[in-house]
DNA sequence: CCTTTTATAATACGTTTGTATTTTATACAC
DNA sequence: GTGTATAAAATACAAACGTATTATAAAAGG
């Protein structure tokens, strides 16, 4: 054995190279050779870690979901203790901050959203990727539900806003704002997206 | 000249073949040969109508926007006379019906949405397609704005719902619901999407 | 009727793709 | 220390791609 290398780390490094290329050139730019060059390996090394390109793409998309789910879980937990103390107004601000982190409002999250959009589009034609699309949506909706539960606990939610449709609606709003920001990530559009999210949360108040 | 053929019609027929393939196999399935086979032509004939594949894809995406804009314009105009007569409740129902036509609730519009998602993803990596993405969003938001104006004229809009953010918010909601239905087009998900749209419009009432 | 023009078809070509195969070099076992 | 197993690199190869080129056939003009 030439080097005793952590195979898991290696696979993740390659997946991250896939992300970088996809964010820049789209999924069709992520050829085996391009991915290998992106992380300073030979094509043979990539082939050693992934039997086929399809397996590589599936792993890269799985890792996106996994990382995003972990991050969302962390921010969701972070918001909860924050707001339990004060009035409804501060809870609303905390929830707004948490949900803002789902939107592509900075360069890093814009890249993430571009990668995710590319994979989601690929999932429409590849049944092996479709469950990952659904899982990501479920994760986002879960965060929305937790945010709404937080608001409800703080009395920042009106009576009509508490039904089972509030979380799917909030998820749709966030995803729709993301779609808009992908097409137009200008500062003006970012301001508007933030304002729309703010207004929606305000409209839920009692 | 072998046949005196309407060049515009021919280009549209080829573009429609692109849509059929993209809806089924994604954009990377729309090779010149596959497109030619889809509409019963030879690859040479396709090349005669489109200098390059990039030009073909751009035309196909332009035609999607053009057709969608025309359809949206027509349905928007159709809704207006409907609701001006009755109370706010009937206006709300009419608007709900109009906006429902934007959602992929049947097979035809699901195919349309799949095509649009594929092109939108391609636009992220191809600056020549990006303006078409933005235009489509503007068209949808325009319909949302007209629907809201209709509701306002019929007194079916609360005071806080009338600001400039209502149309962008409604557009985001519709696009977000579309994203969800693309990942999960099951009857249950369709029911929920309709319910979310209904609840959102209800929440705008005075 | 013959020439010309042009849409279509067929073929050819160079490139790039994913992947299989071979070669090389290195770290561990005995 | 030597042999062996394996990661990594290099190379090879068939398939598919976009596109250029050539050939064919059919309608219009004189």
TrEMBL record, chains A, B:
SUPFAM superfamilies: Homeodomain-like, Tetracyclin repressor-like, C-terminal domain. Residues 31-50 bind DNA. It comes from the Bacteria. Residues 8-68 form the HTH tetR-type domain. Pfam families: TetR_C_6, TetR_N. The keyword Repressor applies. Keywords: DNA-binding, Repressor, Transcription, Transcription regulation. InterPro entries: BetI_C, Homeodomain-like_sf, HTH-type_TetR-like_transc_reg, HTH_TetR, Tet_transcr_reg_TetR-rel_C_sf. The keyword Transcription regulation applies. This is TetR family transcriptional regulator C-terminal domain-containing protein. It comes from Adlercreutzia faecimuris.
């Amino acid at each position: 054995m030439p080097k005793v290398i952590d195979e898991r780390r290696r696979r993740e490094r390659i997946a991250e190279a896939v992300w970088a290329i996809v964010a820049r050139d789209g999924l069709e730019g992520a050829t085996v050779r391009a991915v290998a060059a992106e992380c300073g390996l030979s094509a043979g090394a990539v082939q050693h870690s992934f039997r086929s390109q399809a397996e590589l793409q599936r792993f890269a998309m799985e890792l996106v979901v996994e990382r995003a789910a972990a991050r969302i879980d962390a921010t969701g937990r972070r918001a909860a203790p924050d707001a339990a103390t004060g009035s409804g107004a501060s809870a609303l601000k905390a929830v707004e901050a948490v949900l803002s982190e789902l939107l592509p409002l900075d360069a890093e999250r814009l890249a993430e959203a571009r990668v995710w959009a590319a994979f989601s589009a690929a999932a429409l034609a590849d049944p092996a990727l479709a469950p990952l699309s659904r899982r990501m949506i479920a994760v986002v909706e879960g965060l929305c539900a937790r945010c709404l539960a937080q608001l409800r606990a703080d009395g920042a939610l009106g009576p009509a806003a508490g039904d089972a449709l509030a979380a799917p609606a909030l998820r749709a709003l966030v995803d729709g704002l993301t779609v808009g920001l992908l097409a137009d990530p200008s500062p003006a559009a970012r301001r508007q997206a933030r304002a729309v999210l703010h207004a929606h949360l305000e409209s839920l108040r009692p």
